[in-house]
Design brief:
Elements (H helix, E strand, L loop, with lengths): L2 E6 L7 H15 L3 E6 L27 H9 L2 E9 L2 E2 L1 H8 L2 H9 L11 E9 L4 H17 L2 E10 L11 H18 L1
Parallel strand pairs: 1-2, 1-3, 3-5, 5-6
Antiparallel strand pairs: 3-4
Helix pairs in contact: 1-6
The structure holds flavin mononucleotide.
Flavin mononucleotide binds next to helix 1, strand 3 and strand 5.
């Protein structure tokens, strides 16, 4: 059985990005995939300390909940990330999570031994949701996720952006938005199966 790693960084359980990633993952489950859900806000993640200890072997020396994440990424087959927009970017929880892959950057570029081989990149998908109807915020968040995917040898296979949703769970009142997330999950899985 293939595994989709689902990165959900919002602190709001049942919030808008949560509801969207759930729909995306439901489509993957319907296609026979297993979901490995990571609720980033529930993890203890210290921001990268730029100690560069990882430059020698690609391993992070900070002992916290990130240590269990690295092998889960390697063992999964694809990744979906769903971020709320905060201050025109991905949220802080997701950015701390991303920065802790600096060890993978060293593994790929300095040590030339990426944890996921260059010729076996995993597919990735990005979902973002914000309150303000302005494209620049989601474009900014997308650029950050593109850099993340590139450094961890994932290739962006698609993305969807939702704007104009602010209250917790408000997107549930919009069946079209949820259907769009489900369809995106279905198409993503079909394109990589
Ligand atoms: C600290 C903070 C900053 C925010 N900044 C923005 C912003 O810059 N642009 C925007 O469109 N929405 C912004 N929002 C609104 C959230 O993106 C919006 O409420 C979203 O639906 C939250 O998703 P969630 O329910 O999955 O957490 C902000 C929310 C918070 C809490």
């Amino acid at each position: 059985m293939k595994t989709l790693m689902a990165i959900a960084p919002s602190p709001r359980r049942g919030g808008n990005s949560d509801l969207l990633i759930n729909e995306f993952c439901r489509a993957a489950e319907d296609a026979g995939w297993r979901i490995d859900l990571v609720r980033v806000n529930d993890l203890k993640i210290k921001p990268c300390q730029a100690c560069d200890a990882c430059a020698k072997d690609g391993r992070c020396i900070v002992q916290d909940d990130m240590q269990a994440i690295y092998s889960r990424v390697i063992e999964s087959d694809a990744m979906v990330v769903a971020s709320p927009i905060t201050f025109g970017s991905v949220n802080a929880q997701l950015k701390a999570f991303i920065d802790r892959f600096q060890c993978w950057w060293h593994a790929k570029y300095n040590l030339k031994t990426p944890f996921i081989p260059d010729d076996a990149k995993h597919p990735g998908f990005f979902i973002c949701v914000g309150a303000i109807k302005r494209d620049a915020f989601c474009e900014n968040a997308l650029l950050i996720v593109k850099v993340f995917f590139h450094n961890i040898n994932h290739k962006l296979a698609g993305q969807i952006a939702f704007r104009g949703y602010d209250e917790k769970g408000e997107i549930a009142k919009d069946p079209e938005a949820l259907a769009k997330a489900y369809q995106a999950g279905k198409d993503f899985i079909a394109s990589i199966s």
